[in-house]
């Protein structure tokens, strides 16, 4: 977008924002303009439309690190300084920028922070900023079921809103405007498809502009366009809502599996082009699916195997009685180095979701993972992670930082541990209130019309998704550093309190100095038991810390006004990035080094073999959080000559309580070779944490952490 184009767009967008009659009309009017600029033309040979450009100004659930009405200043400045604006236009563009700097939704949230909040967390700061916690601005992790849209069509959904309009005219009118925009987008693509010489595709777009989907291709395109317009960069239980259309087309010989595979591959291409690799979840599996679901699931895995891309984040829910062909296809696809699908164990996760969310079994069966591994209830809940806590940073502050009196004055380990948990509780309580404030301001500013069209029970209640229309309003907080914290606590308990080999003052001083001149002490700390080796002391400490932190987070929900507020023990790459700003720790880790990944042992500290490591992974309680990441690295031999042993290993892991697994498959030496000759290893995909990436594209600090992980 040139500076002149941005100026014209921003001036019109701002006018619409300022003059709209209400928040519903405002959002619809702004979205209509936004999509006129953002949606990109189809290209010859494509089957799926929906390519989108990122705009410096707009309204989205999450975009460029903001939410609602956002302004992304770096891309704004890059455009307006390109030399295409006159002096007068540049002056007016500067005035528009000043307006949006205070009018954007994130700024309005921050302006309502009570005094003292920013003593406990930072916001609008780079992730490598040393801090115990970060407040985040986003409405993310959305999974919606498009079945009602597919079966009623745009006109049918419009009629449904018209029937109820008298109850809340402004709200329902806004919904109908959103549907009208969807129809206009479909007709625009119909014209483009016709111009590209594809009359069949043009007919599909013309049909879904108004009518229910009748074929697999129509259902795939209508659902995807809806997700694009909504800003929900997760795609729900796709085999559940597309499988019946695929089965019907195959049975009627309207479609071959080869054709369907090409369509799915093109859909995967659109997802990867957008680049939301932290999200882009597609869910397969689960027992409660219709006929045709398995056929779609198999083709989805084959499309992932053939494309070898980093999205979508294909996810398979395993369940008792599942078609064995699905599991074999999953292992084949993972074994070729795709990292997908991720495997989730319904036998563990459904009971866990029942307890964590406080819902019945039928509702818990609707759980879906999103983003980096958090759970939400399909089409019924939001669980935005709007805050992070670095529990290791909090521990360091209590050992040798601003709160070191908690350690130096503690007469015994229990006293110190209790004091430490008190510091954690202050932070998570504050972040739970920040989460609810974020929802409240968004509800007042931005009704999220597309979410309100599909989420239970917005249409029925006549309320937008964050105005009381949503069935289950949840929140989550991302936890980092838990494993290092537990290992550090194990060492502190042993060497300071039980064995009395060093004093609290000596340990505090050594850590503050990053072990300078204290290598013997560092090795003593490293030699203490570590999580990931099936050791009762180390694993017991992790389980205790996990329980105590998770329950304190869970207990924040009532006072915050949330239906649930839960920990997520995940990872994107923040174990490495947060590590840069985290000082030396009592597990023997040096200042600035990466931290452990999710629920996994600290890289290289699992020294007792894969069985011990997997046993440790199953021990933390799964019933008190909303998801935990389990990353595993296996050699290619495990998926070829040793496949029977691999299947036995995974079967035992899942039967003993393993909730999920994210598997990277490598040959020994692959990563080292990729560092030497990156141009030859563009194909090498690794599971970083809650997302996959091409190894050569990662930052050096993340590559270093990946290199240190144990390969089995």
The share of residues in helices is 40-55%
**Can you tell me the residue ranges where pLDDT is under 50 for at least 5 consecutive residues?**
none
**Mean pLDDT rating:** 96
Count the helices. How many? 31
Number of strands: 18
- Category from helices, strands and their pairing: alpha/beta
Q: Please state roughly what percent of the residues sit in beta strands, choosing from under 5%, 5-15%, 15-25%, 25-35%, 35-45% or over 45%.
A: 5-15%
Described by strand count, sense and barrel closure, the largest sheet is: 7 strands, mixed
What overall geometry do the principal axes of the alpha carbons give? globular
Alpha-carbon Rg, integer:
26 Å
- Ends apart, CA distance between termini: 48 Å
């Amino acid at each position: 977008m040139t500076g002149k184009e941005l100026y014209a767009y921003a001036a019109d967008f701002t006018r619409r924002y300022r003059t709209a009659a209400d928040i519903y009309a405002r959002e619809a009017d702004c979205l209509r303009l936004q999509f006129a600029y953002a949606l990109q033309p189809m290209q010859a040979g494509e089957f799926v439309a929906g390519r989108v450009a990122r705009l410096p100004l707009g309204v989205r659930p999450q975009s460029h690190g903001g939410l609602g009405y956002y302004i992304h200043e770096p891309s704004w400045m890059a455009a307006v300084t390109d030399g295409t604006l006159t002096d007068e236009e540049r002056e007016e563009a500067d005035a528009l920028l000043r307006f949006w700097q205070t009018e954007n939704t994130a700024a309005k949230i921050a302006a309502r922070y009570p005094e003292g909040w920013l003593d406990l967390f930072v916001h609008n700061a780079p992730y490598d900023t040393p801090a115990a916690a970060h407040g985040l601005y986003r409405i993310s992790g959305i999974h919606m079921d498009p079945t009602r849209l597919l079966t009623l069509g745009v006109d049918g959904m419009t009629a449904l809103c018209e029937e109820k309009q008298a109850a809340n005219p402004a709200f329902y009118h806004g919904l109908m405007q959103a549907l009208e925009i969807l129809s206009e987008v479909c007709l625009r693509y119909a014209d483009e498809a016709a111009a590209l010489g594809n009359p069949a595709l043009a007919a599909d777009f013309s049909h879904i502009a108004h009518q229910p989907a009748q074929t697999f291709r129509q259902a795939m395109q209508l659902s995807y366009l809806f997700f694009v317009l909504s800003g929900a960069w997760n795609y729900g239980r796709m085999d559940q809502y597309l499988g019946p259309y695929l089965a019907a087309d195959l049975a009627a010989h309207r479609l071959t599996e080869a054709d369907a595979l090409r369509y799915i591959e093109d859909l995967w291409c659109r997802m990867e082009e957008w680049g939301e690799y932290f999200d882009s979840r597609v869910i397969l599996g689960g027992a409660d699916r219709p006929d045709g679901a398995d056929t779609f699931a198999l083709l989805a895995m084959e499309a992932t195997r053939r494309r070898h891309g980093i999205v979508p984040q294909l996810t398979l829910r395993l369940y008792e009685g599942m078609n064995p062909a699905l599991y074999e296809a999953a292992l084949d696809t993972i074994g070729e180095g795709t990292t997908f699908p991720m495997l989730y164990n319904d036998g563990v996760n459904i009971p866990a979701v029942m307890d964590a969310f406080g819902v019945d079994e039928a509702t818990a069966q609707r759980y879906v993972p999103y983003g980096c591994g958090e759970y939400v209830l399909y089409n019924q809940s939001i669980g935005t992670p709007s805050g992070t806590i670095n529990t290791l940073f909090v521990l360091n502050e209590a050992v040798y930082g601003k709160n070191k009196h908690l350690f130096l004055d503690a007469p015994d380990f229990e006293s110190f541990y209790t004091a430490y948990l008190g510091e954690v509780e202050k932070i998570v309580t504050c972040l739970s209130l920040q989460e609810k404030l974020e929802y409240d301001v968004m509800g007042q500013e931005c009704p999220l019309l597309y979410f309100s069209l599909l989420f239970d029970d917005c249409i029925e209640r006549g309320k937008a998704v964050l105005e009381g229309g949503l069935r289950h309003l949840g929140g989550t907080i991302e936890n980092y550093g838990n494993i290092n914290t537990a290992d550090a606590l194990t060492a502190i308990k042993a060497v300071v309190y039980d064995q009395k080999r060093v004093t609290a003052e000596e340990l505090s001083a050594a850590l503050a100095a990053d072990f300078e001149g204290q290598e013997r002490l560092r090795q003593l700390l490293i030699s203490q038991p570590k999580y990931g080796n099936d050791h009762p002391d180390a694993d017991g400490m992790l389980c205790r810390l996990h329980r105590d932190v998770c329950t304190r987070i869970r207990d924040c929900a009532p006072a915050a006004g949330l239906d649930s507020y839960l920990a997520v023990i995940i990872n994107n790459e923040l174990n490495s990035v947060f590590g840069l700003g985290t000082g030396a720790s009592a597990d023997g880790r040096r200042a600035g080094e990466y931290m452990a990944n999710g629920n996994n042992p600290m890289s290289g500290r699992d020294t007792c073999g894969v069985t011990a490591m997997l046993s440790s992974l199953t021990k933390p309680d799964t019933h008190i959080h909303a998801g935990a990441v389990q990353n595993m690295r296996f050699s290619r031999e495990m998926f070829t000559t040793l496949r029977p042993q691999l299947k036995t290993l995974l079967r035992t892991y899942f039967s003993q309580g393993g909730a999920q697994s994210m598997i990277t498959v490598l040959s020994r030496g692959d990563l080292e070779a990729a560092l030497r000759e990156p141009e030859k290893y563009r194909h090498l995909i690794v599971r970083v944490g809650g997302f996959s990436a091409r190894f050569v594209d990662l930052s050096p600090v993340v590559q270093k952490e990946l290199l240190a992980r144990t390969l089995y």
